[in-house]
Design goal:
Length: 206
């Protein structure tokens, strides 16, 4: 309980200071995103937070709004721009989430904030991930796994929520840069999974 209070104070202070320090980079990325991808610059979407309460996630957009002849959006891989892929590989597309951390929607370290529609598809153990705030830096960073299955990711996140501690957060924080390097080298931005609801709905039919 004491560490949870400390963690929130650390999250707010560090996110605010980091946002101030990187504001020139943030402005540069905004300009590049506007030129490469167009308007709007930011991607807003409702995600599931602590205790499965919804909040509005903010990211840099990485895809255009290109459509086919029928006016339907093209597949993700066709709308992902070169600059957008760079943002994903480097995880720079997630920098606007600092604003979510300052607001209290998220933490610096925690499970990935996922879609609300995924909530019914978690196992009882996986649902433990929702006991803590979602994070900018996910627990999977500790494992340097660039191509995660849903089963692995959700287990890592539930394990994190069950074993939350200063020691664990420090280990994840110190491993994140190595993970970012590997992802950039291994083309993490080009890796696609089926949505969790689709994957598990298909499994239930089998």
């Amino acid at each position: 309980m004491i560490y949870k209070a400390f963690k929130r104070a650390f999250d707010f202070t560090s996110a605010l200071l980091l946002f101030i320090v990187i504001s020139p980079l943030f402005l540069l990325l905004m300009i590049c995103a506007r030129i490469s991808i167009g308007s709007p610059i930011f991607f807003h979407q409702q995600r599931s937070g602590k205790d499965e309460k919804p909040f509005g996630l903010i990211k840099f957009r990485t895809m255009t709004n290109a459509t086919d002849a029928e006016g339907k959006l093209l597949p993700d891989h066709k709308r992902l721009t070169k600059f957008g892929k760079f943002l994903r590989n480097s995880s720079l597309d997630e920098l606007p989430e600092l604003l979510n951390i300052i607001k209290g929607d998220m933490a610096v370290i925690g499970p990935r904030p996922l879609y609300m529609k995924y909530n019914p598809y978690y196992t009882a153990y996986e649902r433990k991930r929702n006991k803590v705030r979602g994070g900018l830096i996910p627990p999977e960073s500790l494992y340097h796994d660039s191509f995660l299955t849903w089963d692995k990711q959700l287990k890592y996140e539930a394990d994190y929520a069950e074993n939350l501690s200063l020691k664990l957060d420090v280990k994840i924080l110190t491993s994140v840069f190595q993970t970012m390097f590997r992802r950039n080298k291994e083309n993490y931005g080009g890796y696609e999974r089926k949505p969790l609801d689709v994957e598990r709905a298909n499994m239930n039919k089998q």
